[in-house]
Amino acid sequence: MSFFQGKFGKIYYQVKGEGFPVIFISGMGASHQEWFCQIPSLSKKFKVITFDNAGSGRSVHPDCEISIHEMAEDVSTLVQYLKLERVVLIGSSMGGLIAQSCLELFPKKIAGLVLSSTFEGINSHMIAVLSPLLKSRQSAKVRVKNVLPLMISEKFIREEAKIVHRYISQAEEMSAPREVLQRQVRAVLNFSPHPPRSTHKMPMLILVGAQDPITPPSLAEDLQKRYPQAQLHLFEGAKHLPHIERAQEFNDQLEQFLTHVVRGNSKL
Question: pTM (2 decimals)?
Fold first, then answer.
C-alpha cells in the first residue's frame, strides 16, 4: 500500500497507468474505490491517481475537526509528493469543493477542472440535505442503504444489481465511523468559497445528474455562473452518482475533455 504524509497523518493513494496525470477527489465518506467505473478505462491513456480523503477509507481518521481547505492542502501535498508539473482535478460532491479550494492553493499546476455533482458554496438546500446527518445514529451499513435511493435511480438499482452490489459492498467496507463522517459534514457546512482567481482561461467541465436530489441541476447552473467558461453536461435520468449510473457516458465526457486539455497543454 502507498501512503504520503498529509496534514493530519498518513493519506492512502493509488496510481494506475501512464500519461497526463489526473487526480480523482472523492465525495463525503467515500474512498478511492468510488471510481471503480473510471479507473480501468481512463488508465489506458492517462496516469490516474486516486486517494482517500482524511477521514475516509485507509487514510487517517482525525480526532479533531477538519476543513475543506485542509483537505485541499492534502491534494497539494500529493501533487508535490508525486512531483507532478501539471494535473487535471476531477472532484465529485464534497470532492468538488476540495477541487475548487485547490484553485486557491496551486492554480498554476491545474491544467483543467471537472466538477461533478457539486456546488459553489453552502446554501439553504444543502443545509436541509446535510443537517440530518449530524444527528444520525445509524451504522455504516444502514446509512449506505438508506441513502442509496438518493444516489442512484430506482431503474439502475433494479437493472444493474451487480454494479450496485459492488458499490454498496465497497462503501460499507471503507465507510468511516459515524463521528468521523460527521466531521466531514461539518466541513462541508462550514465551506465558504473564496472569490475565484483569474481562471477564465482554465478549461472546466461541470457534470450533473438530471434527477439528482442532493445537488440538483440548478446548483450546477449556479456553478457555471461562477465559472462561465465551463461546459455543462446533464446526465438524463441519473441521480447523484453519474460516474456509476452513466459510467460510459461519464467516461466519454472525461476522455473528450482530457484530450482537449492535454492538446492545449502540449502547446505551452
Answer: 0.95
State the Cα–Cα distance between residues 66 and 70, nearest whole angstrom.
Answer: 7
- C-alpha distances in Å from residue 225, one per residue of 118, 120, 210, 218, 231: 14, 10, 18, 11, 11
Domains of the chain (ranges; CATH) run 2-265 (3.40.50.1820)
- Give me the residues paired with residue 232 across strands: 206
- Give strand ranges (E) for the chain: 2-5, 10-16, 21-25, 47-51, 87-92, 110-116, 204-209, 231-235
3-state secondary structure string, 80-128?
A: HHCCCCCEEEEEECHHHHHHHHHHHHCHHHEEEEEEECCCCCCCHHHHH
- Tell me which residue of 123, 112, 117 sits closest to 188, measured CA to CA: 123
Q: What pLDDT score was predicted for residue 202?
A: 93
Count of CB atoms situated within 10 Å of the CB of 54: 26
- Cβ neighbours of residue 107 closer than 8 Å, sequence gap 6 or more: 197, 199, 202
Round to whole Å and give the CA distance between 219 and 128.
Answer: 14
The pLDDT value given to residue 267: 61
Per-residue pLDDT reduced to its tens digit, 192-218: 877 666 676 899 999 999 999 999 999
DSSP annotation of 194 reads P
d(CA 163, CA 141): 17
Average of per-residue pLDDT across 90-119: 97
Q: Could you tell me if residue 19 is left (phi over 0), alpha (psi between -120 and 50 degrees) or otherwise beta?
A: left
- Whole-Å CA distances, 86 to 27, 44, 103, 106, 217: 23, 19, 13, 10, 30
Give the model's pLDDT for residue 268: 53
